[in-house]
């Protein structure tokens, strides 16, 4: 979470005052977020899909979800098609990245954002946000793998913690959804968060 002085600076750097609402955390709701990208290298990665779903209290509100296809600026490589299952023709009707990111911002508003290895997704999103807004995403961020790590160390101090997604799903008893889909990844992260919350780590 941004320190108070960092938030003040970010507000001053904000290019579009319409997005001041990103700084206004006004409810207990959260947004679970996941992205698919062309690369696992932040410097090279372009957005391909964005999935997001709202959490309200202890409910995952799947009727309020975002599932966006994004048209990349460069052709997909064969290697990346294998990783996420998306083909160039799947993305031919995708949104321009700027439009997709603006829709995401409107969906998030001032709510905190959570995810599994969220730092990577935010770093990629920030590449698009900074030219638009002058700042990266200022919302409070909740990292599922970090919460799980704390949970496991409380159970077994000094133990090795397996942070692979499959290990979290199995250990916390969460249904396994198809993982190449960004919205399914966001829903999975939301279920993991609620499972940890029930164990006192929300």
From TrEMBL:
SUPFAM superfamilies assigned to the protein according to its UniProt record, in alphabetical order: Ribonuclease H-like (SSF53098)
Record InterPro entries: Ribonucl_H, RNaseH-like_sf, RNaseH_sf
GO BP term, pick one: DNA metabolic process
Domain Exonuclease: 29-202
A Pfam family assignment: RNase_T
Protein name stated in the entry: DNA polymerase-3 subunit epsilon
GO CC field: cytosol
One of the record's GO molecular function terms: nucleic acid binding
